[in-house]
């Protein structure tokens, strides 16, 4: 089980996976292992992971940030798409889930590309900014929705001009488009979508893949 578009019928989604998916055996095993775990629906869908890989390769990314690791499928996908010298700084707070991630990163031979930081991501990102770190090429934000705006602002500071941020779950099952939905996560996502929609610092596209994926490019 993983996040798939609620807008695409099952038979069409199955067709897309059958015809286009190029994931590795380790990626498939990780997907199966995660499917049996709590919160399995949080796992990014394999079609979306492949799209992230395409973005990483297209912009020639070398330095990446991930906010929200869970069991490591997205960091694994990005690491596989990076050149040998490429690196991902991966932020999460869960020892348990990232233990699974580490196991599969090792098995896929990409562990040395991934620098896991177990701390609140705002702390890790603020420390990078304070240390003068800049010029990251690519970031994937897929973590607690109430902090999305904070992650967006911090990652934007760390990104180079022309760098990309992919932000997951921006349609939230469609709830963002339903004014009757006023829970904290929906409101946070709705506000961020509206803010990015008029943010002159970036170019933007919101894709209907998965649960909605916003791509922004830093101007
Ligand atoms: Ca997600």
Please tell me about this protein's structure.
- With 219 residues, this protein is α/β, with parallel strands linked by helices.
- It is built from 8 helices and 7 strands; from the N terminus they run αααβαβαβαβαβαββ.
- It has a 7-stranded mixed sheet with strand order 3-2-1-4-5-7-6, sandwiched between helices.
- Helix 7 (148-158) links the parallel strand 4 (136-141) and strand 5.
- The longest helix has 14 residues, at 184-197.
- The chain is globular.
- The structure holds calcium ion.
- Residues 3, 42, 44, 142, 168-169 line the site of calcium ion.
- Strand % is 15-25%
The helicity comes to 40-55%
Number of strands: 7
General shape: globular
Order of helices and strands: HHHEHEHEHEHEHEE
Largest sheet, in brief, is: 7 strands, mixed
Spatial order of the strands forming the largest sheet = 3-2-1-4-5-7-6
Number of helical segments? 8
Bound molecules: calcium ion
Q: Which structural class best describes the helix and strand composition?
A: alpha/beta
Mean of the pLDDT scores?
Answer: 96
What are the segments in which pLDDT stays under 50 over at least 5 consecutive residues? none
**C-alpha end-to-end distance:** 36 Å
Radius of gyration: 16 Å
Features:
binds calcium ion; 8 helices; 7 strands; alpha/beta; globular; 42% helix; 219 residues; seven-stranded mixed sheet; 20% strand
